[in-house]
Amino acid sequence: MIERGGIPRQHHLVKDEAGNTIGEVTSGTQSPSLNKAIGLAYVDKAFSKVDSEIFIEIRDKKIKAKVVKIPFL
Fold it and tell me: Which of 18, 25, 31, 67 meets the CB 3.0–4.6 Å disulfide criterion with 8?
């Protein structure tokens, strides 16, 4: 997650900048070593490239996130 504002959890929706649903979170947590929220999600192929900006809908707010390679480093 780029912005703070929550932890992605299973079934949270993944959105594009326009607010269109492009995927769904499969798991997420707070990383103690990175001091950030991290998660895994299925997203449309067009948004799967590393460094793509996406948004996770948490409590009716869009929180900015970024696609990265795993493992999270």
Answer: 25
